[in-house]
Amino acid sequence: MNFLKKLLPEALRSKSGVTIIVTVAVLLEIIFIVEYLFARKGIREDVEHRAETELRIKNLEIQKVMVAVETAIGNTLWAAERNLEQPDSLYSVLRRMVEQNPTIVGAGLMFRAGYYPQKGHWFEPYVAQRSDGTIEAEQIGSASHNYLEADFYKEGIAAGKGRWSEPYFDEAGAKMMLCTYTIPVHDSNGEMVALLGADVSLEWLSHVINATHIYPSSYNVVISRTGMVMAGPDESLIMRRTIQEVTASSSDTTTRYINQQQMSGKSGHQDITDNNGDRISVFYAPVDGETGWSMSVVCSKREVYADLWQVSLYLSLLMLAGLLLLGYIIYRAARSASTLRKATAEKERIGSELRIARNIQESMLPKTFPPYPERKDVDIFASLVPAKEVGGDLYDFHIRDEKLFFCIGDVSGKGVPASLVMAVTRSLFRTVSAREDMPQDIVTAMNEAMADMNDSDMFVTLFVGVLDLKTGLLHYCNAGHEDPLLIGKGVGLLPTTDNIPVGLMPGWNYEGQEALIYPQTTIFLYTDGLTEAENSVRAQFGKLRMIRTARQLLTTNVSSHRSTDGCTYTPQAIINAQTEALHRFVGNAEQSDDLTMLAIQYLAEPGTETDTLDSQD
Fold first, then answer.
1. What confidence category does residue 246 fall into, taking pLDDT thresholds of 50, 70 and 90?
2. What is the pLDDT of residues 26-59, one digit of tens each?
3. In Å, what is the CA distance from 576 to each residue of 79, 519, 603?
């Protein structure tokens, strides 16, 4: 005891000193427990993020292949329908599709029974690409290969549209495990006469699924719409057993629930106990598109928390070491205070830089309204409210050659990365629209530029329009954005053609459209920050409320304020009305997404009377 007294500082020899040691010991224990719990929570969040990222990445890789196949067969359909009267020429049509698309291992046309009397009851011209690179063409329809009774043929005919089949083994054509995308073929009278099919080997799916894993012992599984195992860690199960059969011996009711969720196209994650008694985490999500497939990531909780459990074994030793480090902790506390001050200063600096970045971002967009006070043929107003310090929404417009070029866009994601993509998108629009006149050409050029430098897999939903201010003719191209609203004598959505967002895939053929905009009509454009805004119970504002708000404004102006020579509701009044309606709806709920609105009103010449678009929501 005397020896310990000599070792202890005088301040720790008193009861107060012992109290300090005991207090510190308790605090250290609490700190370690809290750190353990937070570390466990952090690891859980990390594995969830990794699994969700893995699912998204694999989904995109699968979608790239499937979109390529769907595009190829869609581009071949017209040639097949044009050559129906010359059945022997169909082999060259199929050969061209197979040669130009390495993903497709075979292609065929399955005609209805006896369509060509001279060809017999079954006629299925088929072209296959063999493993050695040779192309073989043959007629494989026969009594032994009765495609008329095959499920994918019956289901494809019944669907009446493009459809992915269930995986199957093709013994007559490609002679391998396949999944077929079919689309109906119609003759000149519009009658369905055949199915055009493109075969894709399942080898690519196994390669995509098993190329990477989030943990060494984790694995990925893909099942079909009927629960058949299509890709997984055990090749002996692939296309031989369903997921229900694989998990039938499990007593965990959560396992059956996961199976039901996957086959219903749901997404989520659950913890279950496997047949060995180990706890595992299962993350699952549907594969986008019309396949009905579902994908899951399975990882062992033992591996996920291995490092944390090892650390817990040394917890008691660390507690004892913490007592010996009491003086060091006091020293570190002083340094921590200094570090905290520096961190606070750094945070303020970052906040200041973000405010500057926001000002720079806002300065890139038009913000003077009305922008063209000298013009009597157009009136414009816009509003942009980012959800964070900087946002990913954008809008822009300018007049060239008596045409109004305008756009509105929404970058995937939020924050600084989205703001950088937004700045690039706006600059590209200004640059390309200075030389191109058609919206689809503008969007195509922007897509090529952005897809070429898109290493972060971010994309932009974009609507580009060109309004001829002399004639009112609107040319436009919608790249995955929300349909604009037309407000005149009535309210209705401007019909748009489906195009993929900008920056997602190079080489996409964007389709443009045109419409005649009558004088006194307003084109109202917006991002999903308006329609998908949520209130405190997570209900969305929605398109119906947006349309209803526009109608109420229109009715009020017509009944109370509208003059005989034109409408008095301005673009600013339309945006203000939508903003007020949105604020009433969301209440005190936090804004979750950037909110951007752009209203362009095409005005009539003095004394001109024209009809606007009738309501068509």
1. low
2. 776 787 677 777 777 887 788 778 878 888 888 8
3. 51, 22, 20
Grouping H, G, I as helix, E, B as strand and the rest as coil, residue 463 is strand
Q: Determine the pLDDT at residue 263.
A: 75
In contact, 355 and 389? CB cutoff 8 Å: yes
Grouping H, G, I as helix, E, B as strand and the rest as coil, residue 12 is: helix
> What distance in Å separates the CA atoms of residue 488 and residue 500, rounded to the nearest whole number?
29
| Cβ contacts of 11-19, under 8 Å, gap ≥ 24 | none
Burial of 212 (0-12, 13-18, 19+ CB in 10 A): exposed
At 222, list the tokens: 């893909």
Q: Which residue has the tokens 């308790």?
A: 26
Contact present, 124 and 141 (Cβ < 8 Å)? yes
Non-local (6+) Cβ contacts of 316 within 8 A are none
Q: Please answer whether residues 48 and 284 qualify as being in contact, where contact means their C-beta atoms are separated by less than 8 angstroms.
A: no
Q: What is the arithmetic mean of pLDDT over 101-121?
A: 90
Nearest to 315 by CA among 37, 532, 606: 37
pLDDT at position 585 over 90 = yes
pLDDT at 13 over 80: no
Tell me the per-residue pLDDT of 469-512, one tens digit each, with 9 for 90 and over: 999 999 999 999 999 999 998 999 999 998 999 998 999 999 99
Q: Are 283 and 267 in contact (CB under 8 A)?
A: no
pTM to 2 decimals?
0.45
Phi-psi bin for 289: left (phi > 0), alpha (psi -120 to 50), beta? left
Cβ pair 214, 54 in contact under 8 A: yes
Per DSSP, helices labelled H in 129-193 are: 151-159
Assign residue 108 a region (left: φ > 0; alpha: ψ between -120 and 50; beta: otherwise): beta
- Prior bond of 9 cis (ω within 30°): no
**Rounded Cα–Cα distance for residues 584 and 573 (Å):** 16
Q: Where are the alpha helices (DSSP H) in 123-252?
A: 151-159, 203-210, 243-246
Given CA atoms 226, 229, 230, 231 in this order, what sign does their dihedral have? positive
The tokens describing 172, both together, are 């007559």
pLDDT at 464 over 70: yes
φ/ψ (deg, to 5) at 522: -110, 130
pLDDT at 9: 55
CA distance 398 to 394: 14
CA distance 384 to 418: 15
Q: Both tokens of residue 303?
A: 């591996």
